[in-house]
Amino acid sequence: MPSLLPPFLALLCFGAPAPALRGPAPPPASPRQAGAEPAAEEPWCPYKVGAEGAAGGRLCFRPPARGFQCAARSCRAHRSPGGALVANVLRNGSVLLQWGPPRPAAGLRGFALNCSWDGTYTRFPCDSVELGAACRDYLLPEAHGSVRYRLCLQPRYAPPRPAPPAQCVEFRVEPAAMRDIVVAMTAVGGSICVMLVFICLLVAYITENLMSPALAGAAGAAAAAATTGPRRA
Question: Which among 45, 224, 67, 82 has a CA at the least distance from the CA of 164?
């Protein structure tokens, strides 16, 4: 019987066979590679407000009002003669301006928004706004009631392209007191209508159920009296 000692000694000397070498594990797939590319974020609107028509002002940003629709109950839309500029006058006294991309779009640097309102004898300028090329709307947070406003939006291009004519829209904001009066009158009118309907139903019920038996009994007694008549001695 052959001895198992030499193979055992060789195994101890040389060790077990080395495992097969493997390359480095591939890095895990990133979410963008595994799935679809995320949708591009909508650009924010940069703007500067100059008080009373003055230039300059602090640079601000606002998100776009995508998908806004002017509801008939809480909003009133006013359009410029060309239809490119829309002023949505809301019931809370704010005004949302909306416009589409101008043509041509090449070389567009931004927009200039000029505001003025009618006084008793003259027209007064209000805040002027400089907007970036990505802006498609702007919100006037507070507008005075019973005042006629005129807002003009003009695109600005890089020279030597001249600026096209401005699109202007005029509107009047309903005063807050008048809005409260209209709401109160509507509520009171609705209450009066409900009360009148209730009174009519009550009168019909009384006429149908209470007065009809009494009238029928009186008519029967009168008929019986007429049939019997007075007896002669």
Answer: 82
Spell out, as residue ranges, where the chain has pLDDT lower than 50.
1, 4-6, 8-39, 53, 177-180, 182-184, 232-233
136 φ/ψ angles, rounded to the nearest 5 degrees: -130, 5
145-148 CB contacts, 8 Å cutoff, 24+ apart: 145/93, 145/173, 145/174, 145/175, 145/176, 145/177, 145/178, 146/172, 146/173, 146/174, 146/175, 147/117, 147/118, 147/172, 147/173, 148/117, 148/118, 148/172
By residue count, the chain amounts to 233
Which structure tokens are listed for 128? Answer: 């002027």
Phi, psi torsion values for 132, nearest 5 degrees: -75, 170
Tell me how far apart the alpha carbons of residues 225 and 231 are, in angstroms, rounded to a whole number: 12
Token pair, residue 46, equals: 């940069």
> What's the whole-model pTM score?
0.56
Q: What is the pLDDT of residues 18-31, one digit of tens each?
A: 444 344 444 444 44
Q: Rounded distance, CA 85 to CA 100, Å?
A: 8
Q: What is the DSSP string of 169-206?
A: EEEEPPPHHHHHHHHHHHHHHHHHHHHHHHHHHHHHHH
The three-state secondary structure class of 89 is: strand
In this structure, what token pair is assigned to residue 75? 């909003």
Look up residue 49 and give its two tokens: 């407000």
